[in-house]
Amino acid sequence: MNEGFETLAIHAGQEADPHTGAVVPPIYAVSTYKQDGVGGLRSGYEYSRSANPTRTALEECLAAVEGGARGLAFASGLAAEDTLLRTVCAPGDHVLIPDDAYGGTFRLFAKVLERWGVSYDPVPLGDVDAVRAAVRPETKVIWVETPTNPLLGIADIAALASVAHDAGALLVVDNTFASPYLQQPVALGADVVVHSTTKYVGGHSDVVGGALVAASAELGERLAYHQNAMGAVAGPFDAWLTLRGLKTLAVRMDRHCDNAERVVELLASHPKVTQVLYPGLPEHPGHEVAAKQMRRFGGMVSFRVAGGEEAAVEVCNRAKLFTLGESLGGVESLIEHPGRMTHASAAGSPLEVPADLVRLSVGIETVGDLLADLSQALG
Ligand SMILES: Cc1ncc(COP(=O)(O)O)c(C=O)c1O
């Protein structure tokens, strides 16, 4: 049966509980499971690091909504990334990363994986020829973020998948900003999709989590082995909250997009704003590609403020309804200064972000209230 996105998000992996009929998977707060004789597992569960029924429900649902063969849930997005990279890379391998990757992803490469012997090069993912030219014989992964955090750059997933596959490398797509509702990388050729489920998938700023979705069962099996061997799994309560968020992803995303479009309109005509970065704008260099591979353009908006760093910081400090804080993708609107907050770890690197940049995670509050707050914050 070819079910729609919303149906999968609400039902995939979530049969009514066989014992009680509970329509929502219970929180299996349990570490171990009684065996019927040595090795006689009742329903495949033996120890909750290896598998837990609440986590299984989330993992099956994630695989379904991303159109992949296997989903795996982790304690955080970075735990998912680390597990993936230590599964598919070995010391001596090389990875291409976006030249404006999320600061924490960059730090993982620069401070952790490089010491382990995996080298990396930042590349402008919007330029497919530049990516092809940067591939080396030892390149194992092309790491894609699209839209990127925080500059909202767009990469052509299908084109980069063929660059990766021609080179015998894997294409990994961090789909955190778009969410599976707006963009489905597996259908475009990605081998693995990464999520910080902390963001749109969870959607309520109440849980930290991560996910991997493998396109093939074979790679999914290798990742599952490492998930258990490395142990950075999502706990049952976190898995339950994340699954609860995932059920309403589609309706939330549509409202995030509606509100973001109105915010972009306001910013684009504001005298204190020198540039608006949003892939929905026709003048955005990635607009055509985004229109091809995304359902809509998302809830993240960045902009540059006339007057430089101090002026940008002032806008962040003056906002009231837009809460000053890191993270994104929750129902409440957030504002932040990437240079001093989320992307401070990229300072002095090729991934340093402009000092006059402000990033918004546009929430689903009444849009008039959001516009009024931004107008007063801009002064
Ligand atoms: C695009 C992106 N990928 C990955 C991560 C890391 O996820 P987590 O914070 O859940 O470890 C983040 C966090 O902000 C992110 O924005």
TrEMBL record:
<dbReference type="InterPro" id="IPR054542">
    <property type="entry name" value="Cys_met_metab_PP"/>
</dbReference>
<comment type="similarity">
    <text>Belongs to the trans-sulfuration enzymes family.</text>
</comment>
<dbReference type="InterPro" id="IPR015422">
    <property type="entry name" value="PyrdxlP-dep_Trfase_small"/>
</dbReference>
<dbReference type="InterPro" id="IPR015421">
    <property type="entry name" value="PyrdxlP-dep_Trfase_major"/>
</dbReference>
<keyword id="KW-0663">Pyridoxal phosphate</keyword>
<protein>
    <submittedName>
        <fullName>Cystathionine gamma-synthase</fullName>
        <ecNumber>2.5.1.48</ecNumber>
    </submittedName>
</protein>
<dbReference type="GO" id="GO:0003962">
    <property type="term" value="F:cystathionine gamma-synthase activity"/>
</dbReference>
<dbReference type="Pfam" id="PF01053">
    <property type="entry name" value="Cys_Met_Meta_PP"/>
</dbReference>
<keyword id="KW-0808">Transferase</keyword>
<dbReference type="InterPro" id="IPR000277">
    <property type="entry name" value="Cys/Met-Metab_PyrdxlP-dep_enz"/>
</dbReference>
<dbReference type="InterPro" id="IPR015424">
    <property type="entry name" value="PyrdxlP-dep_Trfase"/>
</dbReference>
